[in-house]
Backbone:
DNA sequence: GGCATATAGTTAGTTATGCAACTATTTTCA
DNA sequence: TGAAAATAGTTGCATAACTAACTATATGCC
């Protein structure tokens, strides 16, 4: 392997691999142990709908950084489980508004507690200034590439 | 949504979503534009083998943070493409050593150049101290959860 | 008004991931 | 020594990701 190649790129495997995978796996495990039968990908959709209900699928694409087919199928699966419904937009017939059902609303408190606990554990021993730097850097990485 | 819920957890979507997805997509796009028909997941296996050839599948699991079935199938696909071979370990008949072919070796220089260029672009405007903090924090996140 | 273009969403095909269950081999230890 | 436990790898199943191609609706502009 040539010298001096890909030194900064070691960050790639760090960004892409370890931390995000570890957080995702732990959260999924905590959901399972609590008897919750949802994936973290499905939960990420619910998370955005709890912040603002009845978003279009396109808006869910933007907020979760997924493409349209991925959202289509996540919403399909959430609909099968009775957690969301598609409603036609009154102003634009191309648009589906994805809205929470009462069943989804009842999941909010428990799943957010589990997510908080997971993040507390993940961030143990890391001070707030460092967390802010990480957020800023990763935002910059995203902006540099988008 | 309850107040004060999941505030630190905003980091979750940052870690798990934006930056890593952006880096992965950009690198994949750069591979495609260069006419390379490999996925970034396959490339990540090759990357570790360029650092040290003929690793066991278990060792690839450890170094790439994947489970055993994922490695089995990535190696299957790399083998189909003629980029690696499985060799039985001389000392332990349970073990497959995964070794690079000459075809894989010829990909090394170009793909590392593309990876370097991608990381240069990703890290534009971010100073080295901040990069070090990000690496440290994400390592800590991983260690906290593993 | 009507045609070209853009936007929202779906479908099909390939690859990848995680879990559970399985086979084969090696190690442990009573 | 021999049975139990651990380790390496594979297979089946479900979910999810990206690309490309598709339908339906809306917008822009002559």
Residues:
């Amino acid at each position: 392997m040539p010298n001096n190649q890909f030194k900064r790129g070691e960050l790639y495997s760090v960004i892409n691999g370890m931390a995000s995978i570890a957080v995702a796996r732990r959260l999924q495990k905590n959901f399972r142990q609590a008897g919750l039968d949802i994936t973290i990908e499905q939960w990420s959709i619910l998370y955005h709908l709890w912040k603002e209900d009845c978003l279009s699928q396109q808006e869910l694409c933007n907020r979760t950084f997924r493409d349209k087919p991925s959202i289509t199928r996540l919403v399909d699966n959430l609909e099968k489980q009775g957690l969301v419904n598609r409603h036609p937009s009154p102003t634009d017939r191309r648009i589906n508004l994805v809205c929470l059902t009462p069943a989804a609303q009842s999941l909010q408190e428990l799943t957010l507690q589990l997510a908080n606990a997971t993040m507390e554990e993940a961030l143990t021993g890391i001070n707030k200034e460092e967390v802010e730097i990480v957020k800023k850097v990763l935002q910059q990485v995203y902006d540099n590439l988008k």
